[in-house]
Amino acid sequence: MKMQLLPDDEYMHEVEAASHFNESMYFNVYDPAKSVGGFVRIGNRPNEGYAERTVCLYLPDGRVAFVFGRPEIDGNEAFDVGDTRFEVVTPFEKLNVAFEGKLVLLENPLEMADPRRAFKENPWCECNIELAYAGISPMFGGQLVDDDGSPLGESEGFDFSRGHYEDDTWQVDGYGLRDHSWGPRHWQAPLYYRWLTANFGADFGFVVSRVVRRDGSEHIGGMVLTDGKYEYITQATIETDWEGDDLYHRRLHVRAKTSGREWAVEGEVKNLIPLRNRRTSPEGEELTTRISEGLTRWVCDGVEGWGLSEYLDQIVDGRPVGASET
User: What does each C-alpha distance from 218 to 211, 214, 253, 326 come to in angstroms?
Assistant: First the structure.
């Protein structure tokens, strides 16, 4: 077995038979000089007839501008849902992100825990986003394939994406991360996960991933970019300081080990918005998943960086399941 990543993987993939087949692309960015950043995602679900579209901007004064929708689609030809589109200019090197539409403006981003109320009771604003992404490091990841190049399916019981890699204006010049994945996806598949991304400049950054499956097993992954090369993470621990009755992550203490060294990183969430996904199980049970998106200030070896800390938890009896374990 080996990991394979081809230039064609920058484009759309053949739709598989699984009803919950998903192909998504995600971009985040943060400019510490302007104190502004955010993320944009499109997740095509062609067999279900819609796409998941999310736009989130963290503003300098603490407000968050946000929108989520499920626009109808009839295929998987492009990441283009009308108001949001992604363009591959040169595979692995240049991509463009564009959005033109309305965002809800949240003085208190935690209000998005009740999205119906948040969208109704907060003002909306017109927004135009144009971002140009230029690759500064090698691509990381790819699809697991057999020795003859044929794709390998998901491991049993882990069905969560196969390939993974007022008028105000801000000119953003910062660093970020982008991700492209395809394959069956249910947000309810893992028990919980932690996905941490950080940029400290053009030559230093990391991704740490910890996914806990419903059978209790876990997968640790990610990498550290240093001196223009990736060091794969083989072990990692994430300790979390939680805040409030709803238990949102606020401080993170991360230790990650590569073949070269052990890294100690401290994270402080400066702004957070909780997102929600609901799905009915085949047995008729209403399943609720919370995805908390935290704009995070990181410190490693005395150097400051910025990025996102994404905490996904299944909500059971009103509580995020992972909060009792980390």
Answer: 5, 9, 19, 13
Do 219 and 208 meet the contact criterion of CB atoms below 8 Å apart? no
> How many angstroms separate the Cα of 122 from the Cα of each of 40, 53, 101, 109, 118?
21, 20, 16, 10, 6
Alpha carbon distances (Å) from 315 to 25, 75, 194, 208, 311: 26, 32, 15, 23, 12
Amino acid sitting at position 46:
P
| Neighbouring C-alpha atoms within 13 Å toward the C-beta of 99 | 22
* Rounded-to-integer distance, Cα 117 and Cα 113, Å: 9
Residue among 277, 263, 142, 267 nearest 196 (CA): 267
- The pairing of beta strand 248-257 with beta strand 262-280: antiparallel
Q: Can you list the domains of the chain with their CATH numbers?
A: 1-183 (2.40.370), 187-326 (2.40.370)
Residues of the chain below pLDDT 70: 1-5, 139, 141-169, 326
C-alpha to C-alpha distances, 41 to 165, 219, 244, 315, nearest whole angstrom = 14, 24, 28, 23
Q: Is 65 helix (H, G, I), strand (E, B) or coil?
A: strand
In whole angstroms, what is the distance from residue 81 CA to residue 95 CA? 17
> Would you list the DSSP string of 269-283?
EEEEEEEEEEEE-TT
Q: What pLDDT digit, counting tens, does each position of 96-129 carry?
A: 999 999 999 999 999 999 999 999 999 999 999 9
Q: How far apart are CA 248 and CA 312, in angstroms?
A: 11
pLDDT recorded at residue 152: 52
pLDDT digits (tens, 9 = 90+) for 3-16: 566 888 999 999 99
Strand partners, 207: 197, 223
